[in-house]
Amino acid sequence: MTAKIKAGIVGATGYTGVELLRLLSTHPNVKVTAVTSRSEAGTSVADYFPSLRGIYDLVFQTPDEAALEQCDVVFFATPNGVAMNEAPALLAKGVRIVDLSADFRIKDIAVWEQWYGMKHASPDAVAQAVYGLCEMNREHIAAAQLVANPGCYPTCVSLPLLPLLRAGRLQKGMPLIADCKSGVSGAGRKASVGSLLCEAGDNFKAYGIGGHRHLPEIKQTLSSLQDGIADGFVFVPHLTPMIRGMHATVYLHLEDGTRPDEILREFYRSSPFVDVMNPGSTPETRSVRGANLCRISIQKAAGNENVWIILSVIDNLVKGAAGQAVQNMNIMFGFADNAGLQQAPLLP
Fold it and tell me: Where in this chain does the record put each Semialdehyde dehydrogenase NAD-binding domain (predicted)?
């Protein structure tokens, strides 16, 4: 039997951290050997997360105690600004890294500093990092030492557009609008008035209309795939009263004669985690809950032959975060794409 690689998780007390622990617990090629948390150092993982009782006997350690340099791969499930300070030392020791924060996603350092409000500590690592949208950068991810895991909104919006952009089928000079909704877990596992049940429950609202941090990340992808499209991009996120799930409704104009359903179906023919549904279908967030899946459908807008509508759904904690991180790791180490990611969606 092939020896398992050793994995560490930095910042393992958040929603993406516990999701990584859940997914990696059944991975045939990986053993989690280190989990860190400065605030919970000395606490048993099973005590902190009762859902993991009987699965892990690990104890949270500080990063200094955890011997992360002995891991083959380290996941950073930390707030923005942490990985850029701590990852370079591990990179220098040959450790491979998947960063779930935004520290290495945006190549233009000035743009990153503008949107994230801090000075970047390791611009050289940004230049080294590969953007980890698996279905877009597979070959580069396979050779990477540092992968920047995409954000949840960028994943949900970019996956359905990727084949059409690569084919150059979007009309230049026309608006491209992404109307997106996310469950409350997208805000992270922290004390926040806006995430309280009495605030988020039985409520629906837009936010970040003046500019959301994921906007430059999405525009970077658009610009890299088809010239002249990013300038017309409009992105409006909304908070919905559910725990998990993300839904993107994308309005776009395509070149005459384009058969988008055929383009998407052919492009994703061999992709295990992208489901191109039949035209006219309406994918639901509950159909991907707990699974590393993106379900997509596309159809013409009623009464407007020039406008197409894409519907895209993911679980923001899985394909939008921890699941895609595991998928990136699988590609980096040559494992089967679906290793540790074969969970069926949860229903109800």
Answer: 6-144
What are the structure tokens assigned to 203, written together? 């409520």
Among 215, 102, 195, smallest CA distance to 153 is for: 215
Give whole-number Cα distances, 195 to 138, 176, 273, in Å.
Answer: 35, 30, 29
Q: Per 3-state DSSP, what percentage of the chain is helix, strand, and coil (rounded to 5)?
A: 35, 20, 45
**Residue 231 backbone dihedrals phi, psi, to 5 degrees:** -65, -25
| CATH code that applies to domain 5-128 | 3.40.50.720
Contact 175, 232 (CB under 8 A): yes
Judging by DSSP bridges, how do beta strands 96-99 and 130-131 pair with one another? Answer: unpaired
Helices 152-166 and 134-142 pack at an angle, to 10 degrees, of: 90
In this model, does residue 1 exceed pLDDT 80? no
pLDDT at 327: 98
Domain range 153-315, CATH class: alpha beta
Cα of 238 vs its chain's centroid, Å: 17
For 36-53, what is each residue's pLDDT tens digit? 999 999 999 999 999 999
Looking at residues 117-142, what average pLDDT do you find? 98
DSSP 69: G
The rounded distance, in Å, linking the Cα atoms of 268 and 86 is 36
Tokens at residue 266, please? 């052919």
H or E stretch at 209: none
Residue 123, C-beta contacts closer than 8 angstroms, at least 6 positions apart: 109
The Cα 63–Cα 136 span in angstroms is 32
Residue 74 has pLDDT above 90, yes or no: yes
Structure tokens at 169: 């089928």
Query: Dihedral angle at the C-alpha atoms of 91, 52, 334, 156, nearest 10 degrees?
Result: -90
DSSP classification of residue 44: B
CB 34 within 8 Å of CB 61: yes
Q: CA-to-CA distance for 241 and 201, rounded, in angstroms?
A: 5
Half-sphere exposure of 258 (CA within 13 A, CB side): 24
Q: Which of 134, 152, 180, 294 is catalytic?
A: 152
Does the active-site annotation cover 152? yes
Instruction: Name the β-bridge partners of 275.
Output: 295
